[in-house]
Amino acid sequence: MKRTLPIVFLLLVTGANATAASPEPSQSAFPPSALSSTGTYVDTPIVGWHWYNEPQPEEEDEPDDDTVPLSALPPNLQMSLLQKLTKEKLNSAILSPSPEKAADYLRMQSYLMNLSGQFTQSAKKALLLYPGLDYNLEHSRYNGTATLQQTAARQQQNNAIHNLGQRYGLFMFYRGNNPQDLQMAATVNQFSQQYGLSLIPVSMDGARSEALPQTRQDSGQAAKMGVSQFPALMLVEPGSEQYQPLAYGFMTQDDLARRFLDVATDFKAQY
Question: What's the pTM?
Fold first, then answer.
C-alpha cells in the first residue's frame, strides 16, 4: 500500500492539472468516431482463440445436374442425336481401329436396328387395327394378283378413251420431214383405228406421212391453239372452241392409253 498510494495520487493530480489547463472543457481528447461507439463487449465481443471458435470452411454449392434424359427430348432431336452418335463412333472406329471402338459402334448400330424392328412390327399390328390404311387392299403387291391388276387398269384406260372419244376428236400436228414425228404419226394412226377415234392430221412443213395420207396443210390451226412444239396431239371438241393438249413428243400406245386416263381423271393418282 505504501507504493501504490503515491502512484494513485500522482494520477489524480495529473488528471486534475490536465483538466485545469484545458482552455476548452467542452472539447474531448478522443476523436468523434471513438465517442460514437461505446466499444463495449456487447457491441464488439472480445474474441480469443478457443477450439469452438475456429473459422469454419465455407460450404461450396453443389453444381446443378444439367443432364437431360434422351426420352425427354423431342423425337426429331432424339433421332438426330442417336444418328450423330452412331456416325461418330463409326468414324472413330475407322480412323483409330480397335476392338473396343468397333464394339461401341456395333452396340449403337444394334440399338437403332432394334428400334427399327420394333417399328416394323408395330406397323403390322396397326394395319390390323386400322385396315383402311392397308395399301395392299387396293393395290396388291403379290405377283399372283399382277394379271388381275393389269386387267383392271386396262379396263379403266379403255373407259377413259371411249368417254373422251365421244366428246373430242384428235388433231395431230407433225413435221413430215422429221423421223420422230413420222414415228409418232404412225403410232397415233394405229391407236385411232384401234379405238375408233376421229383423227385430223396436220402437216407443219408440207410433207406428208405415208401412214396419214389424209394429212392437210396447216392453215393457222396450230397458232390458234398455241401449238409451238412438235409432234403435238390435241383434243378438240367439234362445233366449239374448246381444246386441250393430250401429248407432245413421241409416245407408245400403252403410254398414250394411260395419258387418256390421266386427262379423263384430271391426273388423279392411280396408286
Answer: 0.65
